[in-house]
Automatic annotation (TrEMBL):
Coiled-coil residue windows: none
MF annotations from Gene Ontology: histone H3 demethylase activity; metal ion binding
GO biological process entries: regulation of gene expression
Protein name: Specific demethylase 5D
């Protein structure tokens, strides 16, 4: 697991992207330490109450009970044990018979398996509740738990590799820590606190902490707690690590246009009445429907089983969803490689059509990438950036010209506006962007905006100036942060760099990829994953009683993560517009009555295909799954 995970993702992408989701199994010797969440602390997080028998309806989740991490695990353990006792009372007896080695008729063996508390049967139970409404069941999910308050499962970097990690000069001068050492897990780019800032990561230029984007969220799961169908904000990649506990059942739909559009069409048809009132319902992440619906509509859908100590990657625009098979603790964060830029553009356009604020300005990040051209090392990725810059600049200049012809005044020389910062996206820049959202589509007016004398609180992007008010165009005026020359200069720089890469033939030769599948055309790892689906035994003991003793026994340092810097989040980023804080834009008088600058507003069974990106798996000595197990995750084959 040494090296840059982004480079690994680039190697497996030609294969894994076809499935939308992919499982990465760490090599032998992978034993992350310490587990930094204080399971005995008193601090409580809010859970969400999920009505499984109504989760197909797209209704919002209400607030559940507040729990500490330890309390939640005890609750989740008790609920799972109750389910096992009620629905699988003969589990131990059937397991002994199945494992006895005695050959039985196929029907007898299958009947015994149906009486066991194993993933295959729990998956059947889950969809029976959702599709058939066989029983009413309410579960409480500890999702989106802020790591700044409750700690990450990974230790924080001391070499400045995460948003809130320390920068110890003495540590930074040392060689890279060796695999398996405690320092390694603190500094490896596979640490979820670090991966957004890894070399060649687009998000490394986002210096402000955004919860759930470049600062991980924790997920406390229980039997049948559900992460509903969705794709990531701004169509980013995501990486999910399973720290401890019962497996998670994942479903994935590829992010290509045919598959993703197919899921959206199924969603709209399934909830057509609801979406008349809530057109952006899919973005609410409150709906889970059976993969059977997707299969019936010829939408490709795949699944995998994630165990503790394993990663799951989701690819840009890929839809994914799933549920937990018992108590567990996971963690997730986003990242982006340079190939993401076109997906980010698509997401930006999608959000504008729903008037949904993005978590960060796509235009700002695009031009920040253009300001760091040394990072563009291949012609293919640089061409993607060039295409986006040409599109953005072309539209900006064209609309400016049309609006001038329509009568919008250019008072650039009369208004003193701050220049856009293009080296990074810091907290101050993000706050400023929140205050220049288009009144109509909530797009960050990064290059320019249109304002009107009639309002002290509205601005619009160049596309939607006519939605802002009914005033004649001659009462409206431009607010320009990046003039025509700056836009043209940036575009030319990217063109020149792209051309130089093309001449140097720096496009990399084909890389040796991870094996692309089995002889029958299935994805790597599918056979082992299917076997686990039938034989995994799920232990239901919580970690709360003994986690500290275990950490001490393993000679690990138990620590909670403490942060003091200001935070943003997926939920609040680019939120509703409001009065500015300390931002006053003063225009000079114009020949006409001087325009007053606004006080700016702020998925039953599917094909058993799991995309396991490891090399061919070695035999596992221990197939048991321990819920919140204290021991290190079972060793697996090197990826």
């Amino acid at each position: 697991m040494e090296g840059n995970p982004l480079h690994y993702v680039e190697k497996i992408r030609p294969i894994a992207d076809k499935y939308g989701i992919c499982k990465i199994v760490p090599p032998k010797g992978w034993k992350p330490a310490p587990f930094c969440v204080d399971m005995k602390g008193d601090k409580r997080f809010q859970t969400k109450q999920q009505l499984l028998h109504r989760i197909q309806e797209g209704i919002s989740f209400g607030d559940g009970v507040e729990y500490s991490a330890g309390q939640y695990q005890h609750m989740a353990s008790q609920r799972a044990k109750e389910w096992k006792a009620k629905h699988y009372p003969d589990h131990e007896q059937m397991t002994k018979l199945v494992n006895s080695g005695k050959e039985e008729e196929e029907g007898v063996q299958e009947n015994r398996n149906r009486k066991r508390f194993i993933p295959e049967n729990l998956e059947r139970d889950y969809w029976d509740i959702i599709e058939s409404h066989s029983r009413q069941l309410v579960v409480e999910y500890g999702n989106d738990v802020n790591t700044d308050e409750f700690g990450s499962g990974f230790p924080l970097s001391e070499r400045g590799r995460s948003i809130y990690g320390k920068k110890d000069p003495a540590k930074m001068a040392l060689p890279e820590p060796k695999f398996g050492t405690e320092d390694y897990y603190r500094e490896t780019w596979w640490n979820l606190n670090n991966i957004p800032c890894a070399p060649d990561s687009v998000l490394r230029h986002v210096k402000v902490g955004i919860n759930g984007i470049n600062v991980p969220w924790m997920y406390y799961g229980a039997l049948f707690t559900t992460f509903c169908w969705h794709n990531e904000d701004n169509y980013l990649y995501s990486i999910n690590y399973h720290h401890k506990g019962a497996p998670k059942q994942w479903y994935g739909v590829p992010g290509n246009m045919t598959a993703a559009d197919g899921l959206e069409k199924v969603f709209k048809n399934f909830l057509s009445m609801k979406m008349r009132d809530v057109p952006d319902l899919l973005h609410h992440i409150t709906t889970m429907f059976s993969p059977r619906l997707l299969q019936n509509a010829d939408v490709p859908v795949y699944k995998l089983l994630q165990h503790e100590g394993e990663y799951v990657i989701t690819f840009p625009r890929a839809f994914h969803g799933g549920f937990s098979l018992g108590p567990n603790v996971g963690e997730a964060v986003n990242f982006a490689t340079h190939d993401w830029i076109s997906y980010g553009s698509d997401a930006n356009e999608r959000y504008r059509s729903f008037a949904r604020p993005a978590v960060f300005s796509h235009d700002r990040l695009t031009f920040t990438m253009a300001n760091h051209l040394r990072e563009q090392k291949t012609y293919s990725t640089c061409k993607l950036l060039l295409d986006e810059i040409e599109r953005v600049v072309g539209e900006e200049l064209r609309l400016r010209s049309k609006l001038v012809e329509a009568g919008v005044r250019d008072v650039t020389n009369l208004i003193n506006l701050p220049k856009n910062r293009l080296d990074q996206l810091d907290s101050e820049s993000a706050d400023y962007d929140d205050k220049r959202l288009c009144h109509a589509c909530k797009h960050v007016c990064f290059f320019s905006a249109v304002a009107c004398e009639c309002s002290q609180s509205k601005v619009s992007c160049l596309r939607h100036s006519h939605y802002m008010c009914r005033c004649p165009m001659d009462r409206k005026y431009f607010m320009i942060w990046s003039d025509d020359d700056e836009l043209k200069t940036t575009l030319q720089k990217v063109r020149d760099h792209c051309e130089s890469l093309k001449k140097l033939h720096t496009t990399p030769s084909p890389t040796k990829l991870i094996p692309g599948g089995t002889s029958d055309g299935l994805a790597p790892g599918v056979t082992k994953d299917a076997e686990m689906h039938k034989k995994d035994e799920i232990c239901l003991d919580p970690v709360a009683e003994d986690v500290k003793h275990a950490v001490k026994h393993d000679d690990r340092q138990f620590s909670a993560m403490k942060m003091a810097m200001p935070m943003r989040s997926k939920m609040s980023m680019g939120g509703p517009a409001g009065p500015p804080s300390g931002l006053q834009l003063q225009p000079a008088p114009a020949p006409e009555p001087a325009p007053q600058p606004p006080a700016m507003e702020a998925v039953p069974m599917v094909r058993r295909v799991s995309q396991d990106a490891s090399a061919p798996s070695s035999e596992d000595d221990d197939d048991e799954i321990e819920i919140i197990a204290v021991k290190p995750p079972p060793t697996t084959t090197t990826v």
